[in-house]
Amino acid sequence: MPDRPKALLRDRRSIGKKGKVTKMIRRRILGLALGVFTATMGAALTQQVVAASSDASDYPSKPVQLVVPFTAGGGTDVISRVVATFLSQKWGKAVNVVNRPGAGGATGTSDVLKSNADGYVALAHNGSSTEALIAGNTNLPFSIRDYRFVATVINEPFGLLVKADSPFKSLKELNDWVKANPDQLTFGSTGPTSIQTFTVIQWLDSIGVDFAKARLVPSNGGGELLPQIAGGHVIVGFQDVTGATPLVKAGKLKLLAVTGTQRTSLFPDVPTFAEEGAPGVTTHFWSGFSLPAGTPDAIAQKWEAALKDIMNDPAFLDKLKSINAQGGFLDSTAFAQMISHDMDTYKQIVKDKSLIK
């Protein structure tokens, strides 16, 4: 009997140790269960997010802002309003054009590219506010990597314009005069690194004339440039054919040649620069739409598909014809390739001519 208390004590200690082990096991099992639950829920949430980003069936569920980085009334603004009308009808939600001009298009562009990448703020832009702007500036708050290019709807040439009673009846006559009098050539442009200036440079290079001898007369866009040409304040100017058409048809301006490799359907009788002995003038006017980088694929693809659809809509094409616009659809891949090619061209011009001091 004297050994019984010691035996009981040993049993209690043993039970205590077993109890601790049991608690530890329970805790581990609970921890594992929580881990499995958390992982399962996390995977489910991830699948929901992926599904949401890959499914744009309910997009747009509210009005969309289409930002034009220019004042109202210009070519890109007019085209954007036509596109916005057709997209609103197609999607059943308002697509509202908002003008945010400033800094050559940089103000509105920056606003869009720095906004939420959810598809509800889109950019309507052109080469002037994109390739030329970026090629000619080193301190912009955005870069080409901030764009999610969607598609273009307009792609047309620039035209070389002189006043209606100009003594030059053809580009060949003008070329001969410029070669003999390069220091007397004046041209209108929005700045030294604008597309109009790049076009003048390509033209003069192609006929062997030193661009440095020509004189730039500044303007604030087509609204000022076209009257400058018509009034004889500058000898030549370049404008997209859509913007030039009203004054050409009104007999105020004369169109001598167009850029690109083919004549434009808007003026089929007007030759290209290459036809007139001035090859290598490649600038062009496009109008397209982009979203901020990071926009879900499904939303960007819905934009691209919608723009492609309206480009096949006879009513839309008739509307383009009524505003003297030449349609030109490029999908997202071709759009990005065009931008890359143009950027290389314009950056090389800036470098070769030391346009940035």
Q: Summary?
A:
The chain has 357 residues and is an alpha/beta fold. 46% of the residues lie in helices and 18% in strands.
Topology:
Blueprint: H1 4-54, E1 64-68, H2 75-91, E2 95-99, H3 106-113, E3 121-126, H4 131-135, E4 147-163, H5 171-180, E5 186-189, H6 195-206, E6 215-218, H7 222-230, E7 236-240, H8 241-249, E8 253-258, E9 284-292, H9 297-311, H10 314-322, E10 327-330, H11 332-352
Parallel strand pairs: 1-2, 1-3, 5-6, 5-7
Antiparallel strand pairs: 3-9, 4-7, 4-8, 4-9, 4-10
Structural summary, described in words:
- Helix 2 (75-91) links the parallel strand 1 and strand 2.
- This protein is α/β, with parallel strands linked by helices and 357 residues long.
- Strands 1, 2, 3, 4, 5, 6, 7, 8, 9 and 10 form a 10-stranded mixed β-sheet that branches.
- The protein has 2 domains: 64-156 and 284-352, Bordetella uptake gene, domain 1 (D-Maltodextrin-Binding Protein, domain 2, 3-Layer(aba) Sandwich), CATH 3.40.190; 157-276, Periplasmic binding protein-like II (D-Maltodextrin-Binding Protein, domain 2), CATH 3.40.190.
- The model is unreliable at 4-9 and 32-53 (pLDDT under 50).
- The protein is 46% helix and 18% strand.
